Amino acid sequence: MKTITLNNGVKIPVVGLGTFRAKENEAYQAVAHALKAGYRHIDTAAIYRNEKEVGQAIKDSQIPREEIFVTSKLWNDDQGYEKAHLAFQKTLDELGFDYLDLYLIHWPKTYQKAADSWKALEELYHQGKIKAIGVSNFTFHHLEHLYETATVIPAVNQVEMHVGIQHEKLRAFCQEKNIYLEAYAPLMSHEIKNLLANETLQKVAASKSATIAQVALKYLVDLDVIILPKSTNPQRIEENIDLFNITFTSEEKALLKGLNNGRKYFPDPDNIAF
Predict the structure, then answer these.
(1) Exposed, middle or buried, 4 (CB in 10 Å: 0-12/13-18/19+)?
(2) Is the pLDDT of residue 135 over 90?
């Protein structure tokens, strides 16, 4: 499995299993199968309500904990210095772990809440309870305000990203700050039908004897983006990690770049009501 080295030297597998909307036994089975298929990166969140099942599947795999990279996230209602500390401990308890590999602020709320939450994450990071800390759904101005008080630069910014929204400017901004982008919904999530119906992707996939999903995912990997495809289907889980032999010509890269249209399927971080 290809890894990326984050800005603090921690290595993260470039493909992880997303578990959004995977509930209870469904989450357990998906994680268990993913680990058998070679995944070593699992992404969850407190709001997903499946941390317990994710942790149990990892434990039952009998793969050493240190070989599996696990991410969870601080939910909006738990933002703030003291509440973030409590929420993190609850996440550890649910997972059954004594540390996390990556912990993110899930969504930006107010600048002050982000700063207070980040202070808590920095303390947990310095205590060795988190290997790396980062944010999710942060735009330029959220990051700029965070820098005003942060002493640790975020390792990653997890955002909605797929061929339809390639974040060229945000990617360049984050690269300048040595922050890697992580792509959630890299297959357009609940709108995957739009991905599968795309004629350009169909043509490129056919020329590679690959699936449309594999082409869409590998394109992001080639941009040095960490991808988190979510699936509970065993065959799809296996396909989504079997993509490293796919290569694109310059003409194919240009075609795939041309699919960028800025269409989002998840909320605007500046206008969330939760």
Answers:
(1) middle
(2) yes
